[in-house]
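Moderator note: this is an archived Q&A kept for reference. The question asked for a predicted structure of one protein chain; the sequence and the answer are reproduced below.
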Amino acid sequence: MFEKILIANRGEIACRVVKTARKMGIATVAVYSDADAGALHVRLADEAVRLGPAPSRESYLLGDRIIAACKDSGAQAVHPGYGFLSENEAFARRVEDEGIAFIGPKHASIAAMGDKIASKKLAREAQVNTIPGWNEAIDTPEHAVAIARDIGYPVMIKASAGGGGKGLRVAFDDKQAFEGYTSCRHEARAAFGDDRVFIEKYVLNPRHIEIQVLGDAHGNVVYLNERECSIQRRHQKVIEEAPSPFIDDATRRAMGEQAVALARAVNYQSAGTVEFVVGRERDFYFLEMNTRLQVEHPVTECITGIDLVEQMIRVAAGEPLAFTQADVARRGWAMECRINAEDALRNFLPSTGRLVHYLPPATTMEAAGPVPVGGAVRVDTGVFEGGEIPMYYDSMIAKLVVHGFDRSDAIRRMREALNGFVIRGVASNIAFQSALLAHPRFVAGDFDTGFIAEQYPQGFRAEDVVHEDPDFLLALAAVTYRRYRERAARITGQLPGHEMRIGDEFVVVVKGAGGIGEHVPVHLRADAAAITVELRGKSYAISEDWTFGGIRAGGSCNGHSFTAQVERDGLWTRVAHNGRRIEAMVMSARASELLRVMPFKPPPDLGKFLLSPMPGLLAQLAVHAGQAVHAGERLAVIEAMKMENVLTATQDGVVKALLAAQGDSLAVDQPIMSFE
């Protein structure tokens, strides 16, 4: 077994590998860029080596420096994680040639599965179901149209070297096929330097289901059941679960056996994932093989009890698998929510900056640890409170994983865990995750890869969060206010006759879109066990476990436990629960009456300013002061987290002044320029 391994990655996955290595008694070496000098994975590892400046092309993508770090540190093996160089055949070959063990498949296996056209041919030879299509490079748009007609619409046009949702188009007629081929080819050439394009049948109502495989150097290959990955936004996974609510035992077995056959065909040695697209009749077709550890691997670990990172290390060290297919368990139900630094209410734009507050929910399960019998919560992360979310890498903050007795139990546990996940300083997608988990179609397991696009065609909005009882949030705001008054009433030295009186009749004033919203009278009654709130004919007996100044609040309401988030901001109290958030003031009936007649001061008119929609780098200023611009004309480009956001003029006008310079780091809503 190895004595020391180097982890050629960062963030959450680097921390994940460290935990397994520590369990196995293996020392670890972290690598880092300048942006990650104080990162959690650097702190957790036994040693750390600087690679270079913040951009990944100058640090994490430099294979030569990673190999040099292995030699300098004495690391006998390198784990690539996922992303960066994990599926780079040339890097894997270099590592092997240098006498360093690559904790992943052999370079030949990576090469065989890295080309989508070649992998489809291999799949057919291994008798794996493949989607009807044309798997040779297509030279002209006219040829693309002819092929599409022959296959039958709808068809999917895909770049051979594509990935991450790039180089994909769906065509339902000749015109879309012609235009889709042209744009797909251009995008692939720009993104990957490879403009080969192929066409295949588009499966209606498709589900994205993947089979986890594990092979060793002794000819053993097993499959570890399936993962349901159909909840996607723009081809990026949002929620994953295992098993799938759609797959039956016969389909599971057939998919697993075909995945094993494909792995054997390329002499696969490590953990890998065979992805399938599954139709509404449970017909399934090979999509691609990911020759690495997947982001969503924890859900497989939860239902099987197998530490996939440990198995990867053991296989790389030459050990045979210690179990057979018959030994692979399938216990309970697991779900994973990807908690990302993105503003869901601003079309999921990246959010960077300092984590002012970072308090994950209480965990009962750790990566590399055993899976509790009674269900559990696990958080895989690479951040900490006070740390930075840099603009140079992906937006992941953490992976929230739960394990339950069945699917409904897993959903319940996940919703409660999301309620207790406190993130401040950067925006997150937690409210969006909560909305998805509560959606009737998701609860019923009735979804496909188009679910998010269908249910949120205009993007995600705050009103899309449906709460089963919105008045509960008002009651919680009232209880919090009363607790502040109780504390104030205990202050000594109050003037006789002017002591703080707690009272029991109040009005909850909810902030609306245009300022002050509704006024809701409430009656509070306190006893030793709880504070009872009566409003709109309903009663809430709330026993709250919350400390002053804290954010996370737990307790029970009418005998049912809850977790919510409560915080004070001046006179306002923010309450969040199950994705729903309100801002409210609690006051006397007289104060409420006076507030109703107060004039509303609207926010300042910023219509003559171009504001930054996200934090990031001002990569380009395309105009100058005094320049006349037309609607749709490019004004500026902002970059963050591998994303380029082009800002254009919404109407004709003249640039009055530039308020930021190219190369500046911008905050959300920071003015970039003004108009006359």
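Archived answer notes: The first strand starts at residue 4 and ends at 7.
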